[in-house]
Amino acid sequence: VRILSLETSCDETAAAVIENGRKILSNVVFSQIDLHELYGGVVPEIASRAHMEACDRVVDQALREAGMSLQEIDALAVTKGPGLVGALLTGVNCMKGLAFAAGKPLVGVNHIEGHVSANYLSHPDLEPPFLCLVVSGGHSHLVEVSDYGTYRLLGQTVDDAAGEAFDKAARALGLPYPGGPRIDKLAEEGNPEAFTLPSPKTDGRYDYSFSGLKTAFMNTVHTLEQRGETLPKADLAASFRRAVCRELTNKARLLLQERGRDGYNGFALAGGVSANRELRRMASAMCEELKIPLFMPELHLCTDNGAMIGSAAYYRLRNGELAGLDLNAMPALRLV
Ligand code: ATP
Ligand code: MG
Ligand code: FE
After folding, report:
1. Residue 307 CA from chain centroid, whole number
2. What's the CA gap between 173 and 191, in Å, rounded?
C-alpha cells in the first residue's frame, strides 16, 4: 500500500510517499524558516500563504522522487491537527481536492501520532506496546503506545513544552529562530555544570514543568547583563540543556522504574526535541542502565516531515478509518 502524505501544521510544507507504513519512497521537506526568522517566530498568516504557494510543488516533487504517478498511489493522507488553523486548512483543502479529483481514499492524521510514527520508519521492526516521550515545540508527553493508534497519556507538561522552553532560552541569548537546534550546537562547547538551575516541581508524578526553569535561566542571563559581563553563552546553553534533558529523562526513568518495563517492547523518543544531542545521549545511558531497548527517529525524521504522516496514515487506513470530504482542520486536536 502506497500513501502520498502532506504535512502543513506549522512552518514546514512537507510531502512523502510511504510504502506499508514503514518504507520511505520519497520525503520532501520545504522549510519556511527563512520567512519567519526575521520575526523571531512563526507568523501564522505568512505560514498559510507560503503553504498555499508550496503545496502543489512539494506534492509533485514527492511523486517525482518516488518515481510514481498519482494513479499508482493507493491513498492520500494529510495532517488534520493540532497546529495553526490557517496552515492546517491549506493542507487539508489541497489533499481533499486531490482525493476528489483522483478518486482516492483520504486519511486525516493527528500530527503528534505522526511524530510517534517516525519511529516505525527508522525502526521497521518496532511494534507496540512501547512507551514514548513526545517532545516537540508544543508538546511534552509521556505516552503508552498500547497498539497502533491506541494511546494512554501518563504524563504531560503543566506549562511550557520542552521545545518552547528551548526556543525562549535561545531568544534570551540572542540566538535566531528556531532556537532549539542552535542552543544544542552551542551547548556542545560549554560546561553544563557552570550554572545551577532549579529542578522543576509538579503535582503529577510524571508531569513536566519548564516555565520555572526558563524564568530562572532568564534571571541568570539578566543578572549577568546588568553587571555588564559578556555572556558565557556556551556555558549558559549547556547548563540549560542539561537541566531540561535531566528533567525529561528523570520522569521517564521514574515511570519505567515504578510501572516496570514488562510488556513494553522499548522506550522511544519522538518530536523535534528528540533531535537534541544531549537528550539522545542521556536516553541511551538511561535505557542501558534499565536494560530496555531505546528507539529514536533518525535526525531528519524528528522535526516535522511528511513521511511520519504517511506512516501513521497506513495504520489508520488498515483500520478502515477514512476521512470524508467534510474533513476539517482541528487546531486543538489531542492525541488522547
Ligand atoms: P508540535 O509538534 O508540538 O505541534 P512543532 O511541530 O512546532 O510542534 P516540531 O517540529 O516537532 O514542533 O519541533 C520543533 C521544536 O523542536 C522547536 O521548538 C525546536 O526548537 C525544537 N528542536 C529542534 N531541534 C532541536 C534540538 N536539536 N535541540 C532542542 N530542540 C530542538
Ligand atoms: Mg517547524
Ligand atoms: Fe511537530
Report:
1. 12
2. 16
Average pLDDT over residues 66-73: 98
Residue 51 beta carbon below 6 angstroms from any ligand 1 atom: no
Cβ of 274 below 6 Å from ligand 1? no
Residue 157: CB within 6 Å of ligand 1? no
Judge whether residue 261 has pLDDT over 80.
Answer: no
**Cell, residue 192:** 553544563
Reply yes or no on whether the pLDDT at 234 is more than 90.
yes
